[in-house]
Amino acid sequence: xxxxxxxxxxxxxxxxxxxxxxxxxxxxxxxxxxxxxxxxxxxxxxxxxxxxxxxxxxxxxxxxxxxxxxxxxxxxxxxxxxxxxxxxxxxxxxxxxxxxxxxxxxxxxxxxxxxxxxxxxxxxxxxxxxxxxxxxxxxxxxxxxxxxxxxxxxxxxxxxxxxxxxxxxxxxxxxxxxxxxxxxxxxxxxxxxxxxxxxxxxxxxxxxxxxxxxxxxx
Length: 218
Hints:
Blueprint: H1 33-59, H2 65-75, H3 80-91, H4 95-109, H5 113-126, H6 133-146, H7 150-163, H8 170-183, H9 187-200, H10 205-217
Helix pairs in contact: 4-5, 5-6, 6-7, 6-8, 7-8, 8-9, 8-10, 9-10
């Protein structure tokens, strides 16, 4: 009677009563060892896994990170000096046109017309747009004039007049061009050019020289 009121649960299940034994009416724990084993296994497995992963993760990363951060800033400053070296070659080519022009001019002044002519030609090939290009054309014309190559001198003086109409060497180029025509006995072109010198630059020394030449021609 009272033993039949025991509630059925997951741990115990009722069995039919065997003859002669009343205590055995209550069933033995069925599936008792199975749930106990399932509960014990995850508890034991979870406990060892957590400390191992935390210790490995915490110990490994901190050591390599600080030395790498320190090495990087030391590498950054050395590339700064080569940038200064790159600026120096940029300043060197600036005086180069002036130096090469002066060398050619000095050769002409010393009487080395052939050497000066070669240097002026090279200068114009390398620095055609230099501020000294106008003078280089003019003095190249003077080199031809000194060699009595008046045709070539006239063409070189013409380069000065056409390329640099507002240049400082235009009055000289016109005057020397007119005189070169005189050397070729071309008095017609000589007079036209000498008169142009006086018209364009009336107050210049070149205009006075042109007037004297015109009087000589008559």
